[in-house]
Amino acid sequence: MSEFVQGGLPDIFSFSYSLQNNGLGAISLLEKRRNNPHLSRDERRDVQLLRSLAWTYEDIQQKFPEKTLRQIQYACSVPATPKKRQGRPSKLSQAQIEELVDFVCASVQNRRMSYIALAEAMDFSVKKGAIRAALEKEGFHRRLARRKPPISETNRKIRLAWAQAHVTWTQEMWNQILWSDETWITGGRHTRTWVTRRPGEELDPTCIVEKVQRKKGWMFWGCFHGYTKGPGIFWEKDWGSINKETYCNHTVPIAHGYIELQKREGVYLQFMQDGAPGHSAEYTKEELLERGIIPIFWPAFSPDLNPIEHVWNIMKDYLQKEYPENMTYDALRAAVKESWNVLSSSVFAELICTMQERCQAVIDADGMHTKW
Q1: In whole angstroms, what is the distance from residue 173 CA to residue 35 CA?
Q2: What is the distance between the alpha carbons of residues 323 and 28, in angstroms, rounded to a whole number?
Q3: Per-residue pLDDT tens for 295-306?
Q4: Where are the domains of the chain?
Q5: Hey, what CATH class is 155-364 in?
Q6: CB 328 within 8 A of CB 216
Q7: Main-chain phi, psi angles of 364, to 5 degrees
Q8: Tell me, what DSSP letter sits at residue 323?
């Protein structure tokens, strides 16, 4: 150890461990150490300071002859000022907490049980507050469950295989897909509404959302490829419900015409549609085949892989922001058309760029649900 380090530090200790007078007379340093075999906070700080200045454990221990070498080593491995434990102690033992966590994670039904129901089911002789505190300590909180389509074991394997087969597709390959879908659009809000209020203000007129019975709406079909927006059509009220006949009579000709038009421009598109009954019926498959349209194979219940789903959210966000809750059919139709027309090519380009990430997310989830 250098003479500089050894020669410069005694002054630190002459200051830190100077004799202190508490009114009853001087208390010797040795006497204090004998009464308290553990290192004080100041002692730990000085030990760590010496260690940071390259003193060995043995040299430091010589400064603290009443302490063992193990105590010196331990003092260097822990914070000088230990953190105080937060909050009151748990009413449940660690074993009970682990049993509670295992129970909650065991099934869908258990995940949905309230804190009161969990307290009754576990029979730990505690109330809901103790259950809640124990779960929050383990990182659990009550949250709204996300709505996702059902995925069977067979469909999980199909989704996984599809993602693995397409995760290496290039941007040019994704650009050759004509993405299509329908959506039901109503005016007003389509997302949950959060307000800032105090207790007791839940019924204040500024803190409520008026419930509208049987909102007016339109079914809208649209498509895009690459960064290019394709045609969009409204499902007219006199067309009835969407089934194999009406889909082939009204939607398929639009898609076919657009594909043929792009073909003349040297752009060859492959049609994408989901597995809705009107899309997957044999009648529809034969109609598409006769028109020379061979759709890309699509795994069932996979909206997370279809980028056009996000387009619908953008349009509904636009309507929510720009238009009132209640509109006539004609006004709503004009607003929906406007929300479709304002979509820029950059929106579609950004969505296509997410395809590799979407496929990788399905692979990472082993074919199950993803954030998309």
Answers
A1: 78
A2: 81
A3: 999 999 999 999
A4: 3-77, 94-137, 155-364
A5: alpha beta
A6: yes
A7: -65, -30
A8: S
